[in-house]
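pinging the channel bc i need a second pair of eyes. not urgent but kinda urgent?? the chain im working w is below, pasted from the shared doc
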Amino acid sequence: MASGDKIRVLIVDDIAETRENIKKLLQFESDFEAVGAARSGKEGLQLSQELDPDVILMDINMPDMDGITATEMIRQKMPYVQVIILSVQGDHNYMRKAMLAGARDFLTKPPMGDELISAVRRAGEMAHLERGKNAQSKVLPGNIGSPIAPTMLPGAVNGKVITIYSPKGGTGCTTLAVNLAIALHNETTRVVLIDANLQYGDVAMFMNEQGKNTILDLAPRVDELDMETIQDVMITHEASGVNVLAAPQRPEQAEQVSANQFSKLIEHLRHLYAYIVVDTTSSLNDITMAAIDSSDVITLVSTQEIPSIKNSRLFLDLLQTMGIDRSHIVFILNRFDKRITITPERIGENLKQEVAVVIPLDDRVVMQSVNRGIPFMLDNKTQLVARGIYALAEAVRARLSALDIEQEPAGRR
């Protein structure tokens, strides 16, 4: 967020004591401003339009209009507003309905103070980022009355490249890449998912989209690409809307794509998509290095296994020699098992790199998803592992927003 921009919060709850307690909690944070409080869903809907908040803390059970209905109506009118649902019931069905209505987060009442503050801050950063995108889209040439979404206008988008990488094989990078792409994608924020494991890539299989076009249909023509050609080659995953650029169908075909072609292709895609998610192999080959060099954010994936942690340390050291600042790293601990004594805090301290997101172990959900070719973000959104992906999406967006602000000229902040 720009300096001096406070996170404007609206509290919607039918219990006066709850409204007052939350307001007092927010007052301790210098970057928060409680702009109003509503006693019902209908009043919350009205105040949201009058006060234009960044974040709404929304109760579910209210007499005239429930919080989920109010959330859906608010998000339709003001898509940049981020809603955090508060409920005394931590039921998965409630959580699923809240997420489908457009809620950014779901907390069980009464939430822990630190948990609530962190959720509001993440949501606030996202709201400010979405406001900026919304303002930019309004001044894009040809936007009014155009059937083409702003994110598809050549030259109008500065798409962000998010590379999913682990220096240790078998840590779940492809699962993370596929489900993160789905979490980031919506009608106005288009996402393309690239399989950069050119020898043995599985992205298409994970999405049940095998046997179609691949990167080989674009790489040889990279110097003469246009929007129509790219769209003709892209696989559109029908269930999610995410575009997919698959790896070659045979391992020996990987040599037909050069690092230079790959880099140029990514630059083309920046003009067509808001996010370019790249799944990579653990081998630091030319293609993987090209992806890392092109990245705005590198999502570094580790597990609690000692070899994985050791390799992550080596990779972080390598980035330093390459002159890549650690601020571009979002460090992920995947398949976290509470029974193992190696904690995220210990790993972060050991590597001097904070673990930004912890994604829990859930082999049953993940294995079923992979074998069916149906990403769990489509039909298991309420599971803990899916909540981990939502947290990852928020962490990536927040990091991109922070990096954009750092790069702004001082006079524009």
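so The radius of gyration is 22 Å. and The chain has two domains: 7-136, 150-412. — does that match what u expected or am i reading it wrong
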